[in-house]
Amino acid sequence: MPLGRLAGWLMLAPALALLFGVFLLPIGWFLAGSLTDFASFAEFWEEAQDVLFSGTILRVLLNTNGIGAAVTLLVLVIGYPVSYALSRAKGLVFTAILLCIVLPYFTSTIVRTYAWMVLLGRTGLINQILLGLGLIDAPLELMYNRTGVIIGMTYVLLPYMVLTLFAAMKAVDPRLLQAAEGMGASPATVFFRVFMPLTLHGVIAGVLITFILAIGFFVTPALMGGPDDIMIAMLIEREVELTQNWPAAAMMTIVLLVVTLLLYAVYSRFADREAPR
Amino acid sequence: MSGSVDLDAVTKRYGSETVVAGVSLVIPEGEFFTLLGPSGSGKTTTLSMLAGFVVPDEGRVLLGGQDMTRVPPRGRGLGMVFQNYAIFPHLNVAENVAFPLTVKGASKAEIKARVAEALAMVKLTGFETRYARQLSGGQQQRVALARAIVGHPKVVLMDEPLGALDKNLRYHMQVEIKEIQQRLGMTVIYVTHDQEEALTMSDRIAIMNHGRIAQMGPPREVYENPESSFVASFLGEANLVKVRRDGETVRGPGGAPLVAARGALSANEGLVFVRPEKVKVAAGTAELRPNHLPGQVLHASFLGNIMRYAVSAADGATFFCDVANGAGTEIHRAGDAVTLSWRAEDSRLLGS
Amino acid sequence: MSVTPSPFRLHRRLLLGAALATPALHAGRAQTQGEVIVRTPGGSYDDVMRRFVYDPFTAETGIRVTVVAATAAKLIAMFRANNVELDLIDTGDAQLLTLERLGALAPIAYDRWRWSKPEDITRQVRNPHRVGNFIYASVLAYNTETFRGDNHPKSWADFWDAGKFAGPRMLADMASGSANLEFALLADGVPRDQLYPLDVDRALRVMTRIRPQIRRFWDTGALAAQMLSDREVVLGSIWNGRLQTVIDSNAPLAYTWNEHMIQVQSLGIFKDARNVEGAQRLADFMLQPQIQAQYAKALVFGPTNERAFESYTPEEAARTPGGENSRRTGFYQDVAWWHENRDRVSRTWSRWLLR
Asked: B237-350: which CATH number, 3.40.462.20, 3.40.50.80, 2.40.50.140, 3.40.140.80?
């Protein structure tokens, strides 16, 4: 057993070294370098209060969590049936659904987001169709506001939810469903009393991973949002790039990192737990 | 509705393969009926058609005299025990057992009483709040059983319910299942590939092979009087030795004359069937009498309560003989010359 | 053409991670006197510069020119990590000012210039550690189908008059480098020569009046151009180079030179660069009148070498930022003021946006 463990660690070593080298070390350097800029603790405390307890960051955190929650909910509502279809599908249909979900990942986020602009803009396809059909009189504002951010992020994050749920659904023993049916359950009852509870850990894992990813989003809200759709990553970027106030950026980064790690701790509890047997 | 079960010439095909070919069964209420056969013989598919999971391509399924061929499982009111137990991992023991009642919308009080009764019957009182992962294989089996009987169904289907248990536990469960079946007077359709289990528990057995029923009848009849070499060799140990017709006489190895109480040869050649425990082994050379053959002991295996001999006879034929290790029984050794004999009533001629 | 005085912000963001993650991208490369590495805004800007500047420079001196992308943050990170990977920085004047204040830049070797004469360089852009290599402008652009004939906004006061000139609008976000506080103050009646120091609170009060009409505050030149060409907005501020590209592709857009803001792109040289000498020579080469006239015309930017105008036709001069016409109707952005106040303004701006 110790030998097996050692072998496990050895196999992990390259990945760990890479993570350490390109992630932990630079982020440590950045945080340490930024936070040691202060002449005194008092100065640090003053800045910290300004950064962390100003109305701005609270509003941004509220935005971030609100957008994250809305997107996660939407992704779940759309993703669950899609995953279900995927878990039942075979052969060509399976491949087709999977491709539809994964294919967008072969293009860059920026390209995908620009594609949304073409669809959702004031003179975009959707508005033109709706105007052409006479369903609306004036173009709908589908972009450069909260709606645009949520549509764009939902699209980008859907695969994470679908693949997480798919794994959970595939792990459900079909014989349990058949058994339930045999014991007198209607298809709806089988779904709600057996299938759903058995995939609940997948739902929780999917919700957490989606939310974790959502709150760190940058490109989509930056491109598709309106003036006040500022998320925390955008605020961090602004401090890094624009004002070069790295201490402030470092503090916000720590806030985001702590929130993410906390959520991740919850996530790993559900993700590591095997599907109930 | 009574607990009778009928299959009327049901056939099921998957592509070009016929899995079940025109199987007909008439099972009266209260019978313990076993479908026995090797894997791929069609017994599980037959059970699935009874349950309603599989719709037959031809034929009818009748429960209590009513045509249920196209009724989905939930409309059939059957109890079921599944091969893997199919205990819901997200529900505790009580909730699992209550499941068939819950989906029917039974009242809380009724559910509580029935669940307690069913758990008492399978001796699992006190395990209500456990989950499957906290139970042993035998306990899970009992949960599955309790869940199958909780609604007092007239008919219970069991698909290899004891397949995963070790031998000792299996024996105990066989007895308990049989007891419960008799106490509740339910019809049980039982699928197994374990012949001993089938013989112990069943009122009647249907032996299936290649999607057909090879033979059907009470255990003893099927065991003692197999109608084919397949049934003879599938159910228990059998000596099946080549014979040929010589005018009115049937001759076995070395031309020894044989007489069998049952069966006949349809052609000039065939087989004689006799169970190992029906063959007598005596020291010394044979007299020339029907059903007496000279031989030499190849092996003598001590199996505790029995001695098993492998004896070579003329023409390369080998007989297995089980002799009870009773008081004063003569023991033979490898190389000893012996005479094998059996009664005409204990043997049968088979066409091939 | 995707030239922006401030580099393509999206790339900057994506590269930020890379900047922090790969502090030694070029560390292994053997550095010779035969190569100058230049930070540029990228895109088609590089093509134009390659053709009119880098290749002729290589032909003249034998020194190769390699272009790389780097964000402001990456440049600072390089300097702080004591691992400067490039020689010449071609970026917004404000960003160079930040580097200059950090002590990262070598003095421009005006005294050793061979091709350009320091005294020909416009006074405002000739600084000890940075020298302007072109001029661009933020202008008021509008849709000519929405505002036909002469009935178009002609000043920032018009822009603020949503009753007279209705339709969705855009202005620059702080994330583009600076917010359009100057335009707000102009609209409110502050004279061009009395803008600085900016009265931020007053500017934001004026901004509040027009905010319901603002569809989006743009943060990249690409977004600004797209919003105009896609008719997401019918008027707004935009960098003239970006706008010209869209106009050249037949979009129904036009702009007024009135009250535009003149901004400067500059060159700076890392004092710890591996090839300071080569970078000095490239800066010198780039700024000579004929060379500058060629790339500035191609990019619709203004030259910083006054003598470059000698090869301009009157029409070309009229539409050139920093030209005579431009200086009469526009004003220079005060990068020093922005440098001193960017941090404070940025936070005030964020608070105002989220109000």
From this structure: 2.40.50.140
Helix, strand, or coil (residue A182): helix
Among residues B155, B165, B195, the alpha carbon closest in space to that of B28 is found at B155
CATH entry, A51-272, from 1.10.3720.10, 3.40.50.360, 1.10.10.10, 1.20.120.450: 1.10.3720.10
Those residues with Cβ within 8 angstroms of residue B334's Cβ, 6 or more apart along the chain or in another chain = B297, B298, B299, B300
Nearest to B74 among A185, A200, A275 (CB): A185
CB B45, CB B12: distance < 8 Å: yes
The C-alpha atoms of residue B250 and residue B260 are separated, in whole angstroms, by 9
| Rama region for B160: left / alpha / beta (φ>0; ψ in -120 to 50; rest) | left
Nearest residue of B to residue A276, measured between CA atoms: B89
DSSP B157: E
Is residue A154 within 8 A of residue A104, CB to CB? The reply is: no
Say what the alpha-carbon torsion angle C130, C134, C139, C145 is, to the nearest 10 degrees. Answer: -150
Contact (Cβ atoms closer than 8 angstroms) between residue B146 and residue B97: yes
Residue C70: closest C-alpha in chain A: A241
**Any idea what DSSP says for residue C234?**
S
Q: What is the DSSP letter of B261?
A: S
Q: Has this prediction a pTM greater than 0.80?
A: no
Q: What is the pLDDT of residues B283-312, one digit of tens each?
A: 887 677 888 888 899 989 888 888 899 999
Residue A103 CB neighbour total at 10 angstroms = 10
**CA-to-CA distance for B18 and C24, rounded, in angstroms?**
70
Chain A positions in Cβ-Cβ contact with residue C72 (cut-off 8 Å): 241-242, 244
Span B215-266, pLDDT tens digits:
999 999 999 999 999 999 888 889 998 898 888 888 888 888 888 888 888 8
Nearest by CB to A230, which of C177, C230, C350? C350
Q: 3.40.50.720, 3.40.47.10, 3.40.190.10, 3.10.50.40: which CATH number matches C9-135+264-322?
A: 3.40.190.10
For the segment(s) B5-224, the CATH number from 3.10.100.10, 3.40.50.2300, 3.30.70.1530, 3.40.50.300 is 3.40.50.300
| pLDDT, tens digit, 9 for 90 and up, residues C249-295 | 899 999 999 999 999 999 999 999 999 999 999 999 999 999 999 99
Q: By the 8 A CB rule, do C185 and C203 touch?
A: yes
Query: CB contact, 8 Å: B149 with chain A?
Result: no
Query: Closest by alpha carbon to C145, among C229, C270, C35, C66?
Result: C229
Q: Which residues contact B21 (CB under 8 A, 6 or more apart)?
A: B11, B42, B210, B211, B212
